[in-house]
Amino acid sequence: MAEDRARFEYLLRLGDNSLVLGQRLCETLGNAPALEEEMALVNIALDLIGQARLFLSYAGEIEGEGRDEDTLAYRRDVPDFRCALIVELPNGDFAHTIGRLFLVAAFNHELYGALQHAADPRIAAIAEKSLKEVTYHLRHAGEWVIRLGDGTEESHRRMQQALEDLWMYTGELFAPDAVDLAMRTAGVAPDLDLLRDGWNRRIDRVLAEATLRRPADGWMQSGGKDGRMHTEHLGYILAEMQFLPRAYPDARAW
Amino acid sequence: MTAAAGRNTVDPRHRRIWRALAEVEDPEIPYVTIVDLGIVRSVADDEAGDPVVCITPTYTGCPATRLIELQVRAALDRAGFPHARVETRLSPPWTTDWITEEGRRKLREAGIAPPVPGAGRGTLFGADPEIPCPRCGATDTERISEFGSTACKALYRCRTCREPFEYFKCL
Ligand SMILES: [Zn+2]
Fold first, then answer.
1. Taking a contact as any Cβ pair under 8 Å apart, which residues of chain A between 86 and 125 contact chain B?
2. Chain B, nearest residue to A138 by Cα
3. What is the DSSP letter of A249?
4. Which residues have their alpha-adjacent CB atom under 5 A from ion ligand 1?
């Protein structure tokens, strides 16, 4: 794979993961169990969308066809998105919302920790900046996993169920393909096996404190980050996210 | 050159620029200026001799970043530097350690507890640092929420004077 093409694809993955998870978290606005939690989740969404802007702007520059961050966010359809399936899933109950955030934040924490040393100064700078924010996301979600897991019988049952439901979507994050390998050769992407070791240690420590069981590694879903087969949910997310700029193409500011 | 050294520059043009920038309030926390917060990283000249002001965002998603850039441009215009450029730099990433003593004092006066230097960096599930109440100074305080009214603040409560307050969290 040509290196520029791989770099473009890799940046879309980074940007789309943050963009779609950020959009999902925005759905909790007016729906969170408490006002403080609503502020927390929407603040996290704001960080994610900020990170997505930086990655997508750079993706557009690498591609060199005049697409900026807005064009990439608002004018691509489902098959052109490169987010992992896990960020597309509906929020579900609060245990699922927090469980997904926890699993993805733990992944981002490991990933940005590695990418801040990438042989691409622009990606390294975005990762270094984002790592600080993601640390707060991971801490917030991790504290909730512990509180719900080690809480009441009902909260424990729901948190365990959320992990069981989400687990089959975690494998995709660590399964390297041609884009990951090309970026690893270029000194940008980390070794995903090593990344998974760090992720496992973090997850296991929190789950132990939360008295939760680590789900078994069974069949893993894939098809999001390479755009081969997204979930049926992504189209609905995009319909909502892209409505305004598609209906009013000249609306540049509010 | 550090921002602190830059502010004390002897270059009279750069001194004028720093003074103009010290008038620009943070859009979300207007008690402090962007110089107090360490958002202005440097003032230098490019090859053509035009000043270049380098700023850095506090948070990647901070909606004020673009507004700050516009306000910096306006302040430079007013100070007589219409050709000045404004650049945004991400690395090294902004840290609350860059908030000046003056900035910390102003935050405290506005009822916002300034960040405890060096606290919370890299510690994921460690104990919370002790945050003194900005109103009565008591240290018996508790965190209500890690996330507050803006990306940079957390919500706390003082158990002594019973007042809620905001804490400018460490980054
Ligand atoms: Zn008090």
1. 121, 124-125
2. B124
3. T
4. B 133, 135-136, 138, 158, 160-161
Question: What ipTM goes with this model?
Answer: 0.84
Euclidean distance between CA atoms A49 and B106, whole angstroms = 30
Enter the tokens of residue A22: 């950020």
Say how many Å lie between the CA of residue B132 and the centre of ligand 1.
8
Q: Which residues of B touch A206 (CB under 8 A)?
A: 125
Distance B139 CA to ligand 1 centre (A): 8
CATH at residue B16: 3.30.300.130
| Shared domain check, B88 and B57 | yes
Q: CB of A67 within 8 A of CB of A60?
A: yes
Whether B115 and B92 share a structural domain: no
Give yes or no for A43 touching B (CB within 8 A): yes
- pLDDT-derived band at B102, boundaries 50, 70, 90: very high
In this structure, the answer to whether residues B30 and B85 fall within a common structural domain is yes
User: CA distances (Å), A84 to each of A14, A27, A114, B69, in order?
Assistant: 10, 19, 19, 34
Token pair of A36 as six digits: 């403080």
Q: Which residues on chain B are in Cβ contact (under 8 Å) with A37?
A: 145
Q: Kindly report the CATH number assigned to the domain that includes residue A140.
A: 1.20.1260.10
Domain assignment of residue B67, given as a range: 3-96
pLDDT in tens, B54-74: 999 988 888 788 899 999 999
Band of pLDDT at residue A251, cut at 50, 70 and 90: confident
Q: Kindly report whether the global pTM for this prediction surpasses the value 0.90.
A: yes
